[in-house]
């Protein structure tokens, strides 16, 4: 009997690395693995991570990004002429929402999606996978691929990946006019499930621009609920923890789709967790602090890099936290998001004595006494796994209602005054966890469970 074949489809470099960990275990478990690279940088990453070139397929078209970027470029030109003024934005919005222009763009997007569909059909014909592994079922590529797999009877599985944003947070990433449902009221009426309010402004937002939404609907693959992973047509959703499972269900993902397996990168986290004392001493020697002192690990928000804040807003947000941490009697190590430029945050060390980590966060977090992150951070759940008190920071503290860790102390901080932050930090340092036992899925065997789930999806023996 021929071994089962898995096609992995990552969208970004971190997802490619995560899927490579899954693929390594799949190979050990007797499965063939193939990667579909949507961009050249993903192919380079996969080659660097050791994936044979023969196991990497490339895709020429990758969806709708070019048209959106073109429209944003036009807005930039307009603003350079009129400035960021009310009249400049008004003209742009009127032009953007003109029905004739929307219909024209639907036709353009539809042609793009039809071309993409043909490419994906060719990929499936060529590699004939028994199962397809995705990290999302809501991008244009994913939606088309899920539809094609359903037509061919190929199961689709969402691989556990650090997806922090959900229906509470995703509208914040969609502040551009093309996502404003008020500008396209007829579309909002036709597709109410595609609309979610931005909890900061109350503005109703689309997940997709109307022309992408219209084209996906015509193609027959518009996800019913794009605001949560698993809200589309994917067959199985592998969740990194029970907490994430509950978030998916709360967001509208059908419960029967979800299997809790853990996440491959958690296996590395667990390995560090089992060597906490040794790793702490190594870090103390490198960053010159007393290993017996209480240690704070500070995950610096990437709101600016993700387009959610201006640089001035970002600087103010980070500085408010740094001023409190500067007075902390112990070492503070700051971790930056991969999209952040360390040179932009050199002020943390120069002004506040907060040292920037060169290590990946997963290689450091398990030794912390307190972890500070934003409410939307994909790494907040790591603190729960490692039994580390967690301070979640956000400008709008009501958002903290969506994060409900069950096995570690959590404190919510809105930064309205420094006294509150200092008090939360002091209380977090005094927490004594009821148990040191790690959660059941935090055992170094997540990759084995994910491989078993992929085999099961194929109809084979999970062992």
Task: Characterise the protein shown here.
By secondary structure, the protein is an alpha/beta fold. It has 2 domains: 5-62 and 106-265 and 445-457, Rossmann fold; 270-429, Rossmann fold (3-Layer(aba) Sandwich), CATH 3.40.50.2000. 43% of the residues lie in helices and 12% in strands. The protein has helices at 13-28, 40-48, 65-82, 86-97, 99-127, 140-152, 185-190, 210-219, 242-251, 264-273, 276-287, 311-326, 347-352, 380-385, 418-429, 446-457, and strands at residues 5-9, 32-37, 56-58, 131-134, 156-158, 195-197, 204-206, 236-239, 258-260, 296-299, 332-335, 355-356, 370-374, 390-393, 410-413. A 7-stranded parallel beta sheet has the order 3-2-1-4-5-8-9, sandwiched between helices. Strands 12-11-10-13-14-15 form a 6-stranded parallel beta sheet. It has a two-stranded antiparallel sheet with strand order 6-7. Strand 13 (370-374), helix 14 (380-385) and strand 14 form a beta-alpha-beta unit. Helix 1 (13-28) packs across helix 2 (40-48). The longest helix is centred in the N-terminal third of the chain and has 29 residues, at 99-127. The radius of gyration is 23 Å and the shape is globular. The two termini are 16 Å apart. The model is unreliable at 62-85 and 397-406 (pLDDT under 50).
């Amino acid at each position: 009997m021929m071994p089962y074949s898995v096609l992995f489809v990552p969208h970004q470099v971190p997802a490619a690395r995560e899927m490579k960990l899954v693929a390594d275990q799949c190979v050990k478990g007797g499965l063939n693995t193939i990667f579909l690279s949507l961009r050249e940088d993903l192919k380079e990453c996969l080659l660097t991570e050791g994936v044979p070139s023969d196991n990497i397929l490339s895709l020429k078209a990758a969806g709708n990004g070019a048209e959106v970027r073109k429209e944003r470029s036009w807005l930039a030109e307009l603003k350079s002429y009129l400035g960021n003024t009310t009249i400049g934005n008004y003209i742009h919005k009127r032009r953007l929402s003109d029905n004739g222009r929307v219909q024209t763009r639907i036709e353009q997007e539809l042609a793009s999606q039809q071309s993409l569909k043909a490419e994906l059909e060719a990929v499936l014909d060529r590699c004939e996978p028994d199962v397809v592994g995705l990290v999302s079922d809501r991008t244009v590529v994913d939606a088309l691929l899920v539809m094609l797999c359903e037509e061919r009877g190929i199961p689709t599985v969402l691989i556990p990946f650090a997806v922090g944003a959900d229906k509470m947070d995703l509208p914040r990433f969609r502040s551009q006019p093309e996502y404003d449902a008020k500008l396209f009221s007829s579309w909002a009426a036709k597709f109410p499930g595609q609309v979610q309010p931005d909890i900061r402004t109350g503005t109703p937002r689309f997940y997709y621009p109307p022309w992408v939404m219209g084209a996906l609907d015509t193609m027959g693959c518009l996800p019913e609920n794009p605001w949560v992973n698993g809200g589309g047509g994917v067959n199985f959703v592998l969740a990194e923890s029970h907490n994430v499972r509950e978030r998916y269900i709360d967001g509208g993902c059908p419960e029967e789709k979800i299997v809790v397996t853990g996440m491959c990168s958690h296996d590395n986290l667990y390995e560090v967790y089992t060597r906490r004392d040794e790793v702490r001493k190594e870090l103390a020697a490198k960053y010159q602090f007393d290993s017996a002192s209480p240690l704070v690990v500070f995950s610096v928000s990437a709101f600016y890099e993700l387009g959610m804040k201006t640089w001035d807003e970002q600087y103010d947000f980070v500085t408010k936290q740094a001023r409190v941490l500067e007075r902390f009697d112990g070492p503070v190590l700051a971790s930056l998001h991969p999209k952040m430029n360390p040179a932009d945050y050199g002020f943390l060390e120069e002004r506040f004595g907060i040292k920037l980590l060169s290590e990946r966060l997963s290689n450091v977090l398990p030794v912390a006494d307190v972890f500070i992150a934003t409410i939307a951070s994909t790494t907040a759940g790591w603190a729960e796994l490692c039994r580390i008190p967690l301070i979640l920071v956000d400008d709008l503290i009501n958002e903290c209602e969506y994060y409900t860790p069950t096995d570690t102390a959590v404190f919510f901080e809105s930064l309205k005054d420094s006294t509150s932050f200092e008090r939360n930090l002091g209380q977090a340092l005094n927490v004594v966890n009821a148990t040191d036992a790690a959660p059941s899925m935090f055992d170094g065997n997540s990759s084995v469970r994910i491989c078993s789930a992929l085999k099961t999806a194929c109809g084979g023996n999970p062992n």
